[in-house]
Amino acid sequence: MYRGRRLRKNKEIRALVRENHVRMDDLIYPIFVQEGEGICAPIESMPGQFQYSIDQLPPLLDEMKKYGVRACLLFGIPAHKDACGSQAYAPEGIIQKAVRAIKAYDPELYVITDVCMCEYTDHGHCGILDEEGVVLNDTTLTYLAKIALSHVEAGADMVAPSDMMDGRVEAIRQVLDENGFADVPILSYAAKYASQFYGPFRDAAHSAPSFSDRKSYQMDPANGKEALREIEADIQEGADAIIIKPAMCYLDILQAAKERFDVPFCVYNVSGEYSMLMQAILNGWLKEEVIEETLVSFKRAGASMIITYFALMEGKRQYAQKQSRPL
Ligand code: PBG
Question: Looking at the keywords, is Zinc present (predicted)?
């Protein structure tokens, strides 16, 4: 008889046969940076997460270092929005200033920037609109390339375009190469679904569209094969690594993509996924171990990298575990 229980008998043997591990090296922590001073504002719909002004970042960066968070993904909340999102590529824009400040404080922290326009446009869409309110793909590409270049000039280690315009990876690769940044990788949100799970993020980043929705550029949650076409196109355009977003409901996409393409994959464990688990933990309905279970499921499905609001908590958990069980 097959006796699977032999290898589950005690924690020692379970540790020996464990197939997947969540390492702090895999995790990327999203940070919301806001224009202003003295701001460390709790985000109501994302318990435990904050919007920070640049001067308030050092204590956070110290904690991240202590607990082993080595990479972050930056989102900016500008003071001023307009039709073409000019603060997204301004040399003194919030992200450009934040990247410089973070790199000056901790040059070893790997800084990834989200390249998109929705936080910066007064209409909240991820690109430039025509008179009818349609997002203009090819016009938007010029802006995205400008935004990416300005982030990299400020010192970003990697750029992550999240707008879902066609051709943006090629446009960004070209502008980076032409400006002496051939060594800066692109982490493309290749398969990004039009998801309700972004709700809390849009509160946090003030980026909800003021009319209509994002369904003409983000993908239909009903589609799987389409994600493979998106990923293939982005790899051909020069993407170095690929994001699948959201994570929890989309692990089939990750697994299929992983089988087909030989690039590093990243999942984005998005705001709504964070908030529903976190609120259930705070209410006592779920135990905190649910975080580890969630994160390891991403590894099992094939993720190399995980963007998650749980990164710092997970760092604290692993730190405490090491203290209680020194090597
Ligand atoms: C910007 C962007 C969004 C997220 C990441 N980049 C919002 C959106 O597309 O509406 C969502 C992240 C999250 O929910 O945690 N386009």
Answer: yes
Q: How far apart are CA 254 and CA 46, in angstroms?
A: 25
Largest Cα separation within the chain, whole Å, is 71
One-letter amino acid at 286 equals L
**Strands annotated E in the chain:** 27-34, 40-42, 50-53, 71-77, 110-115, 158-161, 187-192, 241-245, 265-269, 305-308
Residue written as token pair 């699977």:
4
Residue of minimum CA distance from atom 8 in ligand 1: 198
- Asked whether the predicted pLDDT for residue 121 surpasses 80, the reply is yes
The dotted CATH code for 22-324 is: 3.20.20.70
Tokens of 110: 């790997």
pTM of the model: 0.97
CA distances from 243 to 20, 28, 113, 272 (A): 20, 12, 13, 17
Residue among 121, 197, 201, 216 whose CB has most ligand 1 atoms within 8 A, to mutate: 201
CB neighbours of residue 79 within 10 Å: 10
